[in-house]
């Protein structure tokens, strides 16, 4: 039986990924800081007779990650797939965001994934097979205020993933990056909520998420894509997911850096008009 470990499994993409793998016949180790919060996942597991078990693991802690993963390896044997999904999305302008928030985002989104990789990779290397999937975001390919800090963590994870793919391939270990667009998750709705700022870009981004979430893309779509990559023989590294993901990336790539800065710093009315013109999306609330 194939085994998968998924971080951040209590809600959103992690929750749907756990269900997707469970329904595909995997033994699923769903990890999260507080297993008692995963009532809905336990309910689904019982209703569908899946093989999903909950395990307490804080990706911010070296000791917690090592204890959890080494314990699972010792008890159950090799883990075939690692899905690094745990993440937080604190938002704010560079000036206004506390340094503590920058540290918290990098600790979870970037270093948390590295901790899990370092804990599980030796076993995969010994087996000469495995699959590591890192969930980043379209924000790992382009950045807009007030998500500069979040983007920085995802840019960093993309860079490490690309280097890891080079290191792991000689050992027959595949590395994939999943890049969701705007997905209907609690995290997206938190970005949708406007936080007062001296910078107008904060309200604009909240309005953009609000408009996009009127036609929501379900988190299950991302879970299915993660499972699809794990089940495939593909060595393709990057996988945008969602109807807006690839268009966003292609649109950014069509601009110079200076044009991108100019677009994002347009006067308010011009910016809303540009969103409607370029995306057919009315972002005005």
From TrEMBL:
Coiled coil: none annotated. The keyword Oxidoreductase applies. Residues 2-186 form the Ketoreductase domain. PROSITE patterns: ADH_SHORT. The keyword ATP-binding does not apply. SUPFAM superfamilies: NAD(P)-binding Rossmann-fold domains. Pfam families: adh_short. CDD domains: 17beta-HSD-like_SDR_c. Keywords: Oxidoreductase. It comes from the Bacteria. Belongs to the short-chain dehydrogenases/reductases (SDR) family. This is SDR family oxidoreductase. The lineage of its organism: Bacteria, Pseudomonadati, Bacteroidota, Cytophagia, Cytophagales.
């Amino acid at each position: 039986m194939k085994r998968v470990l998924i971080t951040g499994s209590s809600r959103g993409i992690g929750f749907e990924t756990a269900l997707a793998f469970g329904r595909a016949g995997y033994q699923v180790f769903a990890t999260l800081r507080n297993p008692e919060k995963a009532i809905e996942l336990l309910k689904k597991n019982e209703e569908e007779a899946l093989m999903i078990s909950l395990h307490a693991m804080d990706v911010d802690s070296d000791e917690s990650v090592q204890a959890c993963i080494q314990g699972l390896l010792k008890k159950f044997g090799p883990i075939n797939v690692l899905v690094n999904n745990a993440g937080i999305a604190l938002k704010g302008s560079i000036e206004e965001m506390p340094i503590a928030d920058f540290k918290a985002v990098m600790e979870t989104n970037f270093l948390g994934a590295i901790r899990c990789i370092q804990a599980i990779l030796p076993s995969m290397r010994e087996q000469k097979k495995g699959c590591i999937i890192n969930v980043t975001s379209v924000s790992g390919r382009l950045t807009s205020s007030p998500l500069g800090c979040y983007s920085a963590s995802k840019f960093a994870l993309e860079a490490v993933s690309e280097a890891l793919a080079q290191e792991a391939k000689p050992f027959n270990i595949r590395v994939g990056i999943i890049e969701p667009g705007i997905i209907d998750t609690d995290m997206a709705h938190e970005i949708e909520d406007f936080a007062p700022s001296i910078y107008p870009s904060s309200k604009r981004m909240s309005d953009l998420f609000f408009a996009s979430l009127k036609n929501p893309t379900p988190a299950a779509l991302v879970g299915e894509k993660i499972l699809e990559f794990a089940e495939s023989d593909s060595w393709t590294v990057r996988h945008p997911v969602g109807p807006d993901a690839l268009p966003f990336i292609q649109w950014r790539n069509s601009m110079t850096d200076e044009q991108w800065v100019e677009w994002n710093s347009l006067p308010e009315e011009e910016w809303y008009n540009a969103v409607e013109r370029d995306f057919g999306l009315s972002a005005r609330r």
